[in-house]
Design a protein that fits this description.
Strand content: 15-25%
Order of helices and strands: EHEHEHEHEHEHHEH
Number of helices: 8
Distance between the termini: 16 Å
Low-confidence stretches: none
Mean pLDDT: 84
CATH superfamily: Spore Coat Polysaccharide Biosynthesis Protein SpsA, Chain A
Strand order of the largest sheet: 3-2-1-4-6-5-7
CATH architecture: Alpha-Beta Complex
Largest sheet: 7 strands, mixed
Helix content: 25-40%
């Protein structure tokens, strides 16, 4: 299948921002992202992926993209979840690198520059949230889920749930996608024999809206998905082409 060619190819990195019912924070998110673009050490654009929002998020995203030339969007017909939104964004990305940040502003776009410093030497650079501003119960859930995932995947990543990551687009497009994939991005990069680096980043309390995660989907989902990952790891096909005459 021929690669998609679009405006994101004019930039070094595309920042994917999945959005689902974030109308209360979308304008603040615009300001934060716009400020970051002016200070980014790599030429960057923003790609909003509206995941079937039922509020006014899509209308506001269209408005934001109309007044900012480095902002783009795509919208899914219905809500498909974070992994599907990420896949849609990655499939549409033509820049050398692709980044990811949540729309809830609990991480700072400015910290992408910390990740950009090492991305040339690693297939993925991912954040580690320091001094997390979540509730004790939420942090406990994450700790349990991360510990179990590390035991099952051996990826040695301490905070795979950090919504601040940068990848080589070529590597990202080779990731086998499935529901829950977003929890295993570092492990899936390692399956390609890629290198992953972890970098401390800032973390903030949620400014507006409500979390899309709760006890059931924070613990039961990763538990089930870990078995899917283990099954796939044993059957994963990894190859590189030495020579060809297809030019």
């Amino acid at each position: 299948m021929k690669d998609v060619t679009n405006s994101t190819g004019n930039y070094k990195v595309t920042i994917i921002v999945p959005v689902y019912n974030e109308e209360e924070s979308i304008y603040t998110l615009e300001e934060k992202l716009l400020h970051f673009l002016h200070h980014s050490i790599l030429s960057a654009c923003v790609l909003f992926v509206n995941d079937g929002s039922k509020d006014s998020s899509l209308q506001k995203i269209i408005e934001i993209c109309a007044r900012n030339k480095h902002f783009f969007y795509l919208s899914l017909e219905s809500n498909k979840g974070l992994s599907a939104a990420l896949k849609a964004g990655i499939d549409s990305c033509c820049s050398e690198y692709v980044g990811y940040i949540d729309a809830d502003l609990q991480t700072d776009p400015e910290d992408f520059n910390l990740l950009f410093k090492d991305i040339a030497d690693y297939e993925m650079v991912t954040g580690i949230r320091v001094n997390r501003k979540d509730s004790f119960f939420k942090k406990l859930q994450s700790k349990i889920a991360n510990s179990y995932r590390r035991m099952m995947t051996h990826d040695d990543v301490s905070d795979t749930g950090c919504p601040l990551k940068v990848m080589h687009t070529k590597s990202a497009k080779q990731i086998p996608f499935f529901n829950g994939m977003h929890r295993f991005l570092p492990a899936l990069i390692l399956l390609q024999q890629g290198k992953v680096k972890q970098v401390p980043v800032r973390h903030y309390s949620r400014m507006a809206g409500t979390s899309k995660y709760h006890l059931w989907n924070r613990l039961s989902g990763p538990f089930i998905d870990c078995f899917a990952y283990r099954w796939m790891k044993k059957r994963y096909i990894n190859y590189s082409i030495d020579k060809h005459n297809l030019d």
